[in-house]
Amino acid sequence: MNTINWRRVIQVGLIMGVVVLIASVIGMVQTFDERDMIEGLLTLGQLLLFAPAFYGGFLVAGKDERRAPLPTLLAGLLAGALAAVPVVLLVALAGFWTTIRDYFVNVSPQLIEILTFGRESLAGSLLLLGVMAGLGLLGAAIHLIPQRIRRPFINATMFTLIFSLFSDVPLNIANQFLSRDLVRLVFPSKGITVIAAVVIFVLALALALWWEFSGRARRQQRQTTITPTERRRNSLIVMVVSLVLLLVLPRILGIFLTNVVAQVGTFVLMALGLNIVVGFAGLLDLGYVAFFAVGAYVTALLTSTGDLGFGINFWIAMPIGVIAAVLFGIVLGIPVLRLRGDYLAIVTLGFGEIIRVLVRSDLLKPVIGGAQGILDVGRPNFGSFTFVTPEHYYYLILAGCMLALFIAWRLRDGRAGRQWMAVREDEDVAEAVGINLVGTKLLAFAIGAGFAGLAGAIFGSRVGSVFPNSFELLISINVLAIIIVGGVGSLPGVVLGAFVLVGLPELLREFVEFRLLIYGILLIVMMLVRPEGLWPSAVRRRELHAAETDEPSVAAAEGPLHEEVQPLV
């Protein structure tokens, strides 16, 4: 097929152009241009500017694999050129509209200089048009490469770009073990050098090609021949190596990155609890931050050495905070036992807001400090040793996460987990086969609240103070988003989701004004491209893709309820 779908080319090209225009007008291109990715070659702002043109060419060429090379390349060329048109018009408009910044404050001379590569308006606009057309052509040309080579090439490119974007992480590690001169060969002030980028790309491409042509087949063959004893041995080795790595990780990462990991760990602990409520039991809870607040406030009140505190030892106060959160979870669970779906979400949302308003109110100010919060929260100690540094709290949070993971894993694979799964699938059927809905739901609320209470207790101690502003509704939304992005019902997915939605923004704090925008875009893309999550559970993946199978009846028969209906009660 040699024809070009002109309508699609124009549509995709202009959409990509509008994306670039919006990113420029709101200031993203200019702000991101301050972050070097590859020294002297590529900045984050330039990547944001050029990537839509490349992707547009890739899209218009990928719909028909039978198209001849020339029409494919021409379609990509036109899509890339069209992606440049809105930005070229912006440059032209800024040339004669002298007061444009009164309406579009971010259309500054610096932005125009970036868009025109520091040249005069006409020459720079033509250069921009040519560059983006060329990128569209390159995006289309990717489809002319055989698929088994195309995939490793794309993966190697993406790895190189991601490595350069988050180069601060390997830079912090390298500074602790290598000489300054050697580090500068790879890492300049920001990003990586051209030589380092080439080496990283070549190594990543070689590994990706090996995996494509040999590694994947060997792994699949190994999975079919491995014995149960070997599987258990391999799992044990992986667990031991992972544990050793986690124990020495603060020594490798340094103070800043250790603090980031500790922050991620706090959200992992909360997400593991909410995953039980939402992922296992299917109970949508939007007021989860209330239990986090209860654990933090109770522990802070008991351990604080200030005017409001009792000065109790942290190891005594923390279990009390967890128990208080569990009790609040049960109190919340009792009135909502018969509610489902949206109604349950609204009620739990209201509960969370009630807790937030109460801790800020003058009514409880004599007890918990109101808007001034609780200061001088006590820290954990063992004799004369006191937890102070991020490294100390890293190990405390790690212990909490390991405990939560173990409990969640045992519950998921036990009778309680099967009962939760049955309730999530159909409450009426679950009740018909003898499952106690009251006890099952209350258990989910109680355990989930307990994990949140533990996270709150550690959080209050780590920060050293507790304020109402730390327990906004956005916390509940973030934790829920972690579960969805990572994979609902998946334990490793929760950990991965926390690193993506909490860890990565912490590493890009210089772009704080655009964090929520990027956050929202990421969620939209995830739901469109991979609704099951980054690391979904087998059950969730089967549920979402059951309609895509040729034998839906077989897919239904392989579900967990078919296999596990007998041990439910």
Structural notes for this entry:
- The structure is a single chain.
- The protein is an all-alpha fold and 569 residues long.
- The chain has 3 domains: 1-144, no CATH class; 147-223, no CATH class; 251-568, no CATH class.
- The protein is 72% helix and 2% strand.
- The chain has 26 helices and 4 strands.
- The chain has a two-stranded antiparallel sheet. A two-stranded antiparallel sheet has the order 3-4.
- A hairpin with a 3-residue loop joins strand 1 and strand 2.
- The protein is globular and about 70 Å long.
Strand order in the largest sheet: 1-2
User: So what's the overall shape?
Assistant: globular
The number of strands is 4
- Give Rg in angstroms: 27 Å
Structural class: mainly alpha
State the low-pLDDT regions, or none: 549-569
Mean pLDDT: 87
Q: How many domains?
A: 3
Order of helices and strands: HHEEHHHHHHHHHHHHHHEEHHHHHHHHHH
> What helical percentage do the residues reach?
over 70%
| Proportion of residues in β-strands | under 5%
Main sheet overview: 2 strands, antiparallel
CA(first)-CA(last) distance: 60 Å
Quickly count the helices.
26
